[in-house]
Specification:
Blueprint: E1 2-10, E2 23-30, E3 41-45, E4 54-58, H1 61-68, E5 78-82
Parallel strand pairs: 3-5
Antiparallel strand pairs: 1-2, 1-4, 2-3, 4-5
Length: 89
């Protein structure tokens, strides 16, 4: 899992059928200290997050398939939680 900040939503008029009715968000991965780490990514939103939210993103395909309950999906990243605070102690 990765910590990330939601930057905004992604709109696609043509997409794979498994994305129908799902919210797709643009996320910036962060370090535990809140610094940007790596490239931005898109993730399917399962927790009604919005721009500016700090979230947990599951980035492992097998885990995503288990949570989505389907066998074959072209989904790699899934927002699974909104983070209230990060305690580094």
């Amino acid at each position: 899992m990765r910590l990330a900040r939601v930057l905004g939503s992604v709109v696609a008029t043509i997409k794979h059928p498994s994305y129908e009715g799902q919210r797709i968000m643009l996320c910036q991965p962060l370090s535990p200290a809140g610094e940007k780490m790596g490239s931005q990514m898109i993730a399917l939103d399962r927790v009604d997050s919005g721009p500016g939210d700090l979230v947990l993103v599951l980035t492992e395909g097998n885990g995503v398939r288990q949570l989505m309950g389907q066998k074959v999906l072209p989904i790699r990243s899934l927002i699974v939680g909104v983070v209230d605070a990060v305690d580094l102690d």
